[in-house]
Amino acid sequence: MAAYSRTQLLLLLLPLSLLCLCGFGSVLGLKAASGPAEPPNPPVLRAADPPAKDAPAAAAAAAAAAAGASPPRRATGWKLSEEEACREDLTRLCPKHTWTNNLAVLECLQDRREETDIAPDCNHLLWNYKLNLTTDPKFESVATEVCKSTIAEDVHSQGEVIACLERALVREAEQQDHVRPIKEECQRAILRVAELSSDDFHLDRHLYFSCRDDRERFCQNTQAGEGKVYKCLFNHKFEEAMSEKCRDALTTRQKLISQDYRVSYSLAKACKLDLRKQRCSLDTNLPRAREARLSYLLLCLEAAVHRGRPVSGECQGEMLDYRRMLMEDFSLSPEIVLHCRTEIEAHCSGLHRKGRTLHCLMRIGRGDRSTTVDSVCQSALQTLIQSADPGADYRIDRALNEACESVIQTACKHIRNGDPMILSCLMEHLYTEKMVEDCEHRLLELQYFISRDWKLDPILYKKCQGDAARLCHTHGWNETSELMPPGAVFSCLYRHAYRTEEQGRRLSRDCKVEVQRILHQRALDVKLDPELQKRCMTDLGKWCSEKTDTGQELECLQDHLEDLVSACREVVGNLTELESEDIQIDALLIRACEPVTQAHCHDVADNQIDTGDLMECLVQNKHQKEMNEKCAVGVTHFQLIQMKDFRFSYKFKMACKEDVLRLCPNIKKKVDVVICLSTTVRNDTLQEAKEQRVSLKCRKQLRVEELEMSEDIRLEPELYDPCKSDISRLCPNVAFGNAQMIECLKEQKKQLSQRCHQRIFRLQEVEMTDPELDYQLMRVCKQMIKRFCTEADARNVLQCLKQNKNSELMDPKCKQMITKRQITQNTDYRLNPVLRKACRADIPKFCQPILNKASEDSELEGQVIACLKLKYADQRLSPDCEDQIRGDSPGVGARLQTGPTAADALLCAEEAAAQEQTGQVEECLKVNLLKIKQDGCKKEVLNMLKESKADIFVDPVLHTACALDLKHHCAAITPGRGRQMSCLMEALQDKRVRLQPECKKRLQDRIDMWSYAAKVAPAEGFSDLAVQVMTSPSKNYILLMIALSVCVLFLVGLLCGRITKRVTRELKDR
Question: For residue 457, what pLDDT band results from cuts at 50, 70 and 90?
Fold first, then answer.
């Protein structure tokens, strides 16, 4: 009797509405009655004691008898309305047309309990009716057919009949072929009975007896009623101590809930009003069975939450529990069991607990090339993820929660527990030191599916739902469209975020920020970009099978851009173009470049809109000390990718797209576009066109691109390709960056192959015309340019540096670089545009034979310069040309540091160690002229001695020693044509003039050197001989001897002529 008295509460806890199923009452031998279409709100609990936890079924029967219960329920004529215990309540609360239907009466009385009290005896009667409902002959007949292999002869034993039918119903949903199909009406009746037992686990006799011990172990302090014991047992389902029998019974119960949410008392009660408010049961196009599915309820209410509509906290709490339940046990989703059975058996067996099987399927579903899942299974996984919606609260995914707990506690502790931004925070720390491997795998497995439906990121949906509806014509959260599937919505959003210029078609600022966030996350793994993975799966296998490290797959696809199939090439091109506008999309690169960004690019990095400024800044600071190897490699790789298509350089594209379409149509590669536009600018400049064809903004950006290309030979394919073999042969250990490789090839120019030599020569010709493109010169002399050449035109920078080369403030490294460039200019007059212009009349006049012998592509090896210097020594050049020859001489010492004369420079190694600042190397070589073995070197020193006669500035040692004497005695003498040298010689011979001792000594040394040079350097022609005689100190003696010789020859000729004449006359007389 005590057990019976504690049953009052159970009567008050009937689950959701029975009216929506009242039409199925006939299966129990009852006539259908009409009822409302919406499930009514479950009643509010009132104080009453439940039956004893361990009360046997007999106690319930005894209780029913003590209460004067009605005859056995299988009596077909028995009616609840005829019972005395409920007649008063029935008359007061229920419409008369429901009295003939027991289920309609049951629903009515339960619904009205919220508004008024029902007599205790009536409550007892109703509870007893529910307890004995499964003894109906209809159930037994179905059970005999469906469950004959699993039920003992006594089909009435402890709820086995209904338990067997429930299992059969579950199996039918999970199987493709139905051996013994259960009729739809019977299916509804089974779910109805499960619903009737949802408030108290005692009413589910099979589960009660299966879980008695487990209830005592895990839920001893949990009172029965309102489905509390069910929920407690569900929470402990995967505990090690849970018995398998109880776990199986709980799983069956959960599977029934997934088929009809009303089988969960707490969920149905908590969400009844919200379901009505959000109109989640009024879609006439859907069958009633679908509306009852747990997934439908979750999707409908989640859509309301994501749209900002009010959903009660109690309902959201229940939803959270059941979403977690779906993620923990894949078997609760019949679609997963049905369509993913093969994958589970092959790859995920033995992982049934705590969501591991589901994550195993998700890992396979990511599309690793070794294993894949069927498209139907993939769709089932996507549907389950949408129903569970773990993106809104990471705690729903137990496997992820457990794997990432340590990361969340350290990296994301500033974010409120359960906040959707936790997942975003975890993605930001992906591949960092704070991330653990297990968390990384679980996170990527989940993000793979979230990335395929934009709605599964709640923050993105919240910020962009208006833009998506306006621009992409999307529907509700749980609605799909064939024209705009979920995966295509994000593509639509980012197109409007980056490519739309029309004001009305742009995204809102908040939405664009979220789109950028998602793009940053997707850049971490190509599998997070659905479109990229779909179109490029074949190419990934073909070209990138070995590129498995972080970020390598996308880099590999970019490297093989020309080899990709058209669909893949298009999506990779679009992504690369997007990165060029906002390099922060490449999260791995940005993470690697954080030190240099903070030190040099923090201003542009803080901008909400990038527009290519950050990458430009990183390129400009690529060789700063803060730049690490990973960042440098990433920046260089992006520069190399930009060469494949000018669209990949956002700033260049925006500045020059109109010029490219007009002047360079059908050209796609960036390097070809740059060459095309540069050639156009150069031609317009040389022809002094009134108006440049290339716009000003394009010319400015073109200059930036040219400067960037000059830093690395790989950025100039026309130069790099012909020189690859030379690089491996001559410069194998030289780095590509900082123009070091180009500088190495310049220094080894004489050993280069013909094609590479020609390309290097053309490069030098361009650099000498436009010194800003000479990366090494501009880098080494950056401070000196600021000091000496701030007002100089960009194209005259080298000329300015040469003029200030001997300044005391000149940096030694810059001076050495200037000397190198002077040496280069002395190898060919075409490399010296100023000299070429100044000597344009002298070169064809004096050096035409050399030009006739040379081909257009061949280098003149300094022949024209040497020719002009000889004429300079002879004082036969025009004034402009003479000035250039005098000012452009880098010094013999510098010239001897390269080429075949380097061996002879070892004679003066000590002087060479002091560089060539003081001219000591030249002085040493002059003194050791006889010891020089190579003819080329000897000739160069002799030429230097010869040139010093014509201009003292060519001889830095003599000029330094005699600087004061020149100022005092020869200030009025114009430099050039040997005038100042002659002045000093006259002063040396004039005893009245007192020269400085050092100057006097150096002048005497020069006289001796010139005399000595005349002995070892015989004239090559009559002009050279005449010059030597006229410049010799013994000129008068030589001329006298020549005159005497002529006289002697004349006399001898006269005598010989008389003798000859006499012989002829004798012959005539004969």
Answer: very high
Query: What are the helix (H) ranges across 770-856?
Result: 775-780, 782-788, 797-803, 812-827, 833-838, 842-853
List the structure tokens of 729.
């042969």
Closest by alpha carbon to 457, among 516, 379, 374, 372? 516
Pick the closest to residue 723 from 686, 693, 749, 692 (CA basis): 749
3-state secondary structure 244-277: HHHHHHHHHHHHHHHHCHHHCHHHHHHCHHHHHH
Residues 6+ apart with CB under 8 A from 389: 298, 302, 323, 396, 456, 458
DSSP string, 874-913: TT-S-HHHHHHHHHH---HHHHTTSGGGGTGGGGGHHHHT
What is the distance between the alpha carbons of residues 610 and 619, in angstroms, rounded to a whole number? 15
Structure tokens at 290: 């679908």
Q: Give dist(CA 497, CA 141) in Å, integer.
A: 64
Instruction: Name the H helices within 311-457.
Output: 313-328, 334-339, 341-347, 356-365, 375-388, 398-403, 405-411, 421-428, 437-450
The structure tokens listed for 550 are 């972080």
CA distance 824 to 383: 70
Scan for tokens 């990511």, then name that residue: 366
Mean pLDDT for 84-113 is 77
Q: What residue has token string 């509460």?
A: 9
Distance CA 135, CA 141 (A): 10
State what percent of residues in the chain have pLDDT above 70.
Answer: 78
Share of the chain above pLDDT 90, in %: 26
Q: What is the spatial distance between Cα 776 and Cα 814, in angstroms, rounded to a whole number?
A: 10
- CB neighbourhood size of 679 (10 A): 12
Which residues fall within 8 angstroms of residue 871, CB to CB, at 6 or more apart? 842, 846, 877
Of 271, 274, 390, residue with least CA distance to 323: 390
The amino acid at 511:
C
* CA distance linking residue 405 with residue 327, whole number of Å: 17
Summary mean pLDDT of the chain: 79
pLDDT digits (tens, 9 = 90+) for 826-866: 888 888 888 888 998 999 988 888 888 877 667 777 888 88
Write down the residue that tokens 């005539």 correspond to: 1068
Q: Is the pTM of this model over 0.85?
A: no
Q: Two tokens at 148?
A: 């004959």
Place of tokens 């690395």: 712
CA atoms of 475 and 471, how far apart (whole Å): 12
CA distance 148 to 1037: 143
- Measured in whole angstroms, the distance separating CA 381 from the mean position of its chain's CA atoms is 28
Measured from the Cβ of residue 578, the count of other Cβ atoms closer than 10 Å reads 21
Residues 6+ apart with CB under 8 A from 1039: 1029
Q: Which two three-digit tokens encode residue 969?
A: 């005695």
Question: Which alpha helices (H) appear in 113-264, and where do they start and end?
Answer: 120-131, 137-146, 160-174, 184-196, 205-210, 212-218, 228-235, 244-259
Rounded to whole angstroms, the Cα distance separating 142 from 530 reads 48
**Bigger pLDDT: 180 or 304?**
304
CB contact at 8 A, 912 and 897:
yes
DSSP letters for 348-359? -TT--STTHHHH
Interacting residues of 767 by C-beta distance below 8 A, sequence separation 6+: 710, 773, 774, 777
Determine contact, residues 684/693, Cβ cutoff 8 Å: yes
Token pair in block for residue 991: 């005893």
CA–CA gap between residue 57 and residue 689 (Å, rounded): 107
- 936 and 750 Cβ atoms separated by less than 8 Å: no
Distance from C-alpha of 1067 to C-alpha of 1051, rounded to nearest angstrom: 25
